[in-house]
Every structure is written in structure tokens, then in C-alpha cells.
Amino acid sequence: MRRARVTLADVAAASGVSVTTASLVLTGRARELRISAEAERRVRTTAHELGYRRNVLATGPRGGRSQTIGFVSDSVTSSGWAADMIKGAVDAAYRHGFMLFVGESGGDPLVERTLVDAMRDRRADGVVIASTHTRAVVVPDCLTDVPAVLLNATSATAVAVPVVLPDEVQAGRSAARLLVEAGHDRDIHLIGAGASRHDSPPQSIAASERLRGLREVFAEADVEVAGARWCPKWTPEHGFAATAALLSEHRPKALVCLNDHLAFGAYQALAEAGLSVPEDVSVIGFEDHPVASWMRPRLTTVALPHHELGAWAVRVLVEMVVRRARTPMIHRVPMPVREGGSVAAPHG
């Protein structure tokens, strides 16, 4: 059930003053018009206790849409991926006749709540809450009375909000299928996660879903994963260390690296061991990070479609705002394969 918005009249009645007096206090004109300090204190205290927020666009057209969408991201300036998501959202908003207002929370729930409140005060027709990396987020309770969509995030609370996510399970299937179709049926090793489906970095939704997709296809093809190296962080350093440790014991035919940074480290370890990609060892990654295009040969990877994720979230929100349509609670955006030269048929 949507929470009724507290009005200026509610604040005035609870404070024992006129609507005009309450308005003058809350617009900062109390002293100018000689309203008593006690009345000002009473109005401000009551407004805070009731959760009143002044509608800064109250003079605009009543009952209509503002044609604006709020977009709150945990990262804007520090991530190229965030910029790609925002560009997709901006493009989609423009095509549907909406303007996008963007705010950066830095992952701070209090800042996020403040940004959402500010966008609602400006009569945003809906709000997108975005995360650069897939994770569970606490949905601000102030979103119960405005259309909202989670982007690259799931709800950590009972609040029911549609979510737009990359199809990580299908991405895992695609990566496994590439290796199987290239002829790999043995000596395939994972870099980044252990053999168990629970043996992945804490709270990593992407890891568990990629592993699920990989295992499904390998099981269907009767291919057994020969080994797995868990990494506490998905960085080049950890990819290098895990691959070097593997090579000290065994020479694999193929490496499935759970992201491109791990694959970058694996490339370096393979080179130091005198092994070539893909002649000696095939390597595949995930995410299509810019580093993948600088690797030689270029890394074959399954891409995170950040631009399309942003666009998809806005399209879902517009459906809710304009058509008041009931939308599925989960939307999966396909992750395309970016072919490089790092996968080939096994030799020997």
C-alpha cells in the first residue's frame, strides 16, 4: 500500500497554525514576516516528525507527469562502466521523451535516501537505483509511493521492486559452449572460484550464476572440470598467482577465468611458463573489460552489456509510468560473446 504524502495542511493543523504561517516558516520567511520563534520551532518540529517534504515543483501542472526520471548510482565519475549504463539510460529516456537526473551515492545508504527524496520532491516520475557491480541493496522505503527499478542489483529487503540484471547464467553457458564446441573435453580449469558452487567470493552474485551456467553445459556435454583455483579478489595479481600455482602442478588445456582481470593475470603466468595462448592453453573471460582488447591475442570474453542494461531499466520504468503496466519482477539482459583469438582446438 502506498504511503499518503504529508501535506502542508497536515503540518499546519498539527502545529496549530494557519496554512499560510506554516508555508512561510517552511520557505524560510518566518523572521522576515515576524512569525514568533516558538511558532517557527513548532512548525519545523512537526514537519520533521510527520516526514513532510516541500514540493519544489508545486507551481507546475497538477496531476500531470514531469517527464523526468531519477537515476541514483553508487558510482558515476569513478567507473567507465557506470558511465556506459548512464549513457544507455539517457539515450532511452530521450527516445521516450523523458529527461534523466543523475546522482551518485558512493554506496552510502543515507546519501542514496537523500538523493531519492530530492528527486521525488522534484516530482520525478520514477527512480532507477543502479549498482556498478551486481549486489543486493537495501531499497529505500521512500520508494513505496513512486515507480522504481533496480539496475544491476537485487533487493535485500522485502520491498517488491522490478530488477534488471545481466543474464550471468546464460553467460556461463555461452563460455562453456565455446570451449566444448572448440573440442575441449578435459583439463579445463577454473580461475577465480573453487569447485563448490558456494566456493566463490563472498556476496558475489555474478560468480555463483556464471558457475551455474558453466556447470550446466559441461554436465550436458559430459565434460568434467579438472580443477578450480579460488581467488579472494578478482584482480590480475590473484589471477597470476592462481595460474602460476596451477602450472607448478599441472599443465591445463583451457582456463575459464571468472573475469577479464583474472584472465590478464593468467596470460602473464602462462607467458612466464613459456606457454602460448591459444596454441598451448585456451583462455576465456567474462565482462569485456577494456583490458581484454589490449591482450594479445585479444581475449575471448562474454560481455557485460552496460549500455543496454541502462536502456532496459529506463524502458521498464517508462512502461510503469506511462502505461501503468504490470511488469515482470526480473528482467535478464543477454550477455553477448566477444570473439577474440584466445580459444582454439586443443593440441595433443
Structure report:
- By secondary structure, the chain is of the alpha/beta class.
- 38% of the residues lie in helices and 19% in strands.
- It has 10 helices and 12 strands.
- The strands form 2 sheets. The chain has a 6-stranded parallel β-sheet with strand order 2-1-3-4-5-11, sandwiched between helices.
- β6, α7 and β7 form a beta-alpha-beta unit.
- The chain starts with 7 loop residues before the first helix and ends in a 10-residue tail after the last strand.
Features:
348 residues, 10 helices, 12 strands
- Major sheet size, sense and barrel closure: 6 strands, parallel
Looking at the structure, what is the overall shape?
elongated
Compute the separation of the termini in Å: 65 Å
Low-confidence regions: 59-63
**What pattern of helices and strands is seen along the backbone?**
HHHEHEHEEEHEHEHEHEEHEE
Strand content: 15-25%
List the helices and strands and how they pair.
Elements: H1 8-15, H2 19-26, H3 37-50, E1 68-73, H4 80-95, E2 99-104, H5 109-121, E3 126-137, E4 148-155, E5 163-166, H6 168-181, E6 188-192, H7 205-220, E7 227-230, H8 236-247, E8 254-257, H9 260-272, E9 282-287, E10 300-303, H10 306-322, E11 330-333, E12 337-338
Parallel strand pairs: 1-2, 1-3, 3-4, 4-5, 5-11, 6-7, 6-8, 8-9, 9-10
Antiparallel strand pairs: 10-12
